Amino acid sequence: MELLNALVEKGLRRELPTREEALAVLATSDDELLDVVAAAGKVRRAWFGRRVKLNYLVNLKSGLCPEDCSYCSQRLGSEAGILKYTWLKPDEAAAAAAAGVAGGAKRVCLVASGRGPTDRDVDRVSRTIEAIKERNEDVEVCACLGLLSDGQAERLRGAGADAYNHNLNTSEATYGDITTTHTYADRVETVQQAQAAGLSACSGLIAGMGESDEDLVDVVFSLRELDPDSVPVNFLIPFEGTPLAKEWNLTPQQCLRILAMVRFVCPDVEVRIAGGREVHLRTMQPLALHLANSIFLGDYLTSEGQAGRADLDMIADAGFEVEGAGEVTLPVHRVDAAAAAGGCGAQGSAGCASHGEGGSCGPCGGHAQGTGHGSGHGAGQGSGHGDAAQPSAAGAARTDLVAVRRRGAGTDLPPNA
C-alpha cells in the first residue's frame, strides 16, 4: 500500500505526515488493518526495538474534584461509585509504589484529583517523592497534579520528580464541549511550564468521546508540536454516573488504527497505551504492542485493569520484553537534546540529566475515568462531533468490562501489580 510505505519512510526520518495521510490511516478498512499494524510496527521497532516500558499509577487523592470534565469519574457532580479519600501519607504512597516496582514498573505516576496543587500540596507530593526514592532509588517518578502555578514545576523537580503529566485530551476546537472549568490553553501552558523547569513532559489524549477523526488528528498534531517525551493514548471508559456514560464509540480495530496514527505522527516518542485498553482492545491488546512501547501495569486511578501477571504474560507471549531499569527508553537523539537543555528528557533512561539518572482527575495517561488528569476530551455525551461514526455491533456497550477499583491505594487490600 503506497500510503503505508510513505508513512514508514517518514517515520524513520522523523518527518511529519500530512493531515491527509493521518486521516487516511484512520479511514483504512478492517481488511487493511494488519497491513497498518505491520507498517507502524516497523517505525516502533526502529526507535524502540521490542521493549515495553511498564508504568504504575498511584492515586494519591481520589474523587471530589471541582472540575467538570465530562469523561471523568472524579468530576464535580459525578455519581460514579468510585473510591473517595483524601491525601495518602508518604509512606502509604511509597508502599503502593513499591508494589508496582516489584511487578516490573520503572516509572511510578503520582496522581491527585483537583484543579491544581496548592503550595502545601506540592510539599506533600515532594515528601512522597522522597519517600519513594528512598526505597527505590532508580525509579522514575512522574507527577500528575493538574494545572501548575509559577514555580511549582521547579519545586517538584527539585524534590526528585523526573516528569510531569498533563493531557490535552481532545482538539482545541472541541475542548469546551467536554470541560468548562478550565481551558485548552491552560493545559498547554502547564505542559510548557513542566518543560521549562526541565521535567520530561508527558501529554496525551482520550479517544472515544464522540470526536471526529479530524479532532483526533488535530490533537495528535498539537501534541507533536508540543513535543512531549511521552504520549499516553486513553480510550474512554464510560463510567455510569458521568455525562459520557453512553458513549461506546470504539471498536478494537479503530483503537489499533488510532494507535498507528499516533505512532506515525510521533514516531520517536514513548507512545503509551493507557486507560481503557482492556475495555476496548480486549483480546486484541497484544497487537497494540506492535504500535505502542509502553503500558500501565495493573489497575488505573478509579477502575480496575488487567491483572499485573496477565500483563507480563501478554508481553512475553507476544514476543516482546519488559524494559529494564537500566535501559534508556528514548532514542539517543532525544536523550542528548534533553541533556543539552539540562532537562529530564532521558525519561525512562537511567535517569535524567540532573537527578542522577486544570483539573487533575485523570491519570498519568490513564484518564480520570480510570486512569490522565483533568484532561478533557471527547464531546459531551451523545453530542458527537463532525462525522463521528456511530457505534458498530463490535463497539456495543460492554458495561461488564467497566469495574471500579476496590483495592490498592486508599484501601486495606493489596494493590494489583
Q: Which descriptors would you attach to this protein?
A:
single chain; 417 residues; alpha/beta; ten-stranded parallel beta sheet; 10 strands; 35% helix; globular
How would you characterize the overall build of this protein?
- The structure is a single chain.
- The protein has 417 residues and is α/β, with parallel strands linked by helices.
- It has 14 helices and ten strands.
- It has helices at 2-12, 19-26, 33-48, 90-102, 119-135, 152-158, 175-178, 184-196, 213-226, 252-265, 277-280, 285-288, 308-317, 332-340; strands spanning 51-61, 107-112, 140-144, 163-165, 200-202, 205-207, 230-235, 270-273, 294-296, 321-322.
- Strands 1, 2, 3, 4, 5, 6, 7, 8, 9 and 10 form a ten-stranded parallel sheet that branches.
- Strand 2 (107-112), helix 5 and strand 3 (140-144) form a beta-alpha-beta unit.
- Helix 5 (119-135) packs parallel to helix 6 (152-158).
- It starts with a helix and ends in a 77-residue tail after the last helix.
- The relative contact order is 0.20.
- The model is unreliable at 346-394 (pLDDT under 50).
Topology:
Layout: H1 2-12, H2 19-26, H3 33-48, E1 51-61, H4 90-102, E2 107-112, H5 119-135, E3 140-144, H6 152-158, E4 163-165, H7 175-178, H8 184-196, E5 200-202, E6 205-207, H9 213-226, E7 230-235, H10 252-265, E8 270-273, H11 277-280, H12 285-288, E9 294-296, H13 308-317, E10 321-322, H14 332-340
Parallel strand pairs: 1-2, 1-9, 1-10, 2-3, 3-4, 4-5, 6-7, 7-8, 8-9
Helix pairs in contact: 1-3, 2-9, 2-10, 3-10, 4-5, 5-6, 9-10
